[in-house]
Design goal:
By secondary structure, this protein is mainly alpha-helical. It is built from 10 helices and 4 strands; from the N terminus they run H-H-H-H-H-E-H-H-E-E-E-H-H-H. Pfam families: S1-P1_nuclease.
Length: about 210
């Protein structure tokens, strides 16, 4: 189980090729999960199917957003983004949010999935969170500036409609394709062997 869950982390990383083409609203997250699922071996799919009680990675990819309104999960709010100080281009633990952030969240999820003493319920919860946060990490405005709230305070026009640049990336772009998440996943370019190796050798900070 431990190795299969780590394989999931790897293949979620492979799905980030999608991030350069689309964005990360509900369909974007589900497409990420769908792509990752398609890369898994039959054995890994079987184990994950059991862990997620029959749900797919695509279906659980929006879980972290769905629980936001529940006060019980308020502590996970800062996990959806990481703010970079002005002029900084690399993640720095010294300036990281003490309440946690997206990078800390990814590391926590991975640690729980690696922990053989963690319960099935814990692994299920953190796998659901991981699927979502890998998507968030590759939405450019989830790793942005705190002073404009990740682009939420930057007003723009999208086809003559007023909105903000974060919303454009999160939902507006993907809506313009008028595709389901399965159609989006089917229309992405397969990664080369070299690209897979490059992603596998990287870190969350990359």
């Amino acid at each position: 189980m431990k190795n299969l869950l780590l394989i999931t982390v790897f293949f979620l990383g492979l799905s980030i090729s999608f991030a350069s083409e689309y964005d990360w609203g509900q369909n974007g997250h589900r497409a990420t999960g769908e792509i990752a699922q398609n890369y898994l071996s039959k054995k890994a799919k079987k184990e994950i199917y059991k862990l997620l009680q029959g749900k797919s990675l695509a279906l659980v990819s929006t879980y972290a957003d769905e629980i936001k309104s529940d006060s019980k999960y308020r502590e996970y709010g800062p996990w959806h983004y990481v703010n970079m100080p002005p002029g900084e281009t690399k993640y720095n633990l010294e300036t990281a949010n003490p309440d946690g952030d997206l990078l800390a969240a990814l590391k926590k999820c991975k640690a729980v999935l690696q922990d053989e003493s963690a319960s099935r319920e814990e692994k299920e919860f953190y796998l659901k969170m991981l699927v979502h946060f890998v998507g968030d990490l590759h939405q450019p405005l989830h790793a942005g500036r705190g002073e404009d709230k990740g682009g939420n305070d930057i007003q723009v026009r999208w086809y003559n409609d007023g909105t903000n640049i974060h919303s454009v990336w999160d939902t507006k772009m993907i809506e313009s394709f008028n595709m389901s998440y399965t159609e989006l996943a089917e229309n992405t370019t397969d990664l080369t062997k070299e690209e897979k190796q490059q992603i596998a050798s990287g870190t969350f900070e990359d």
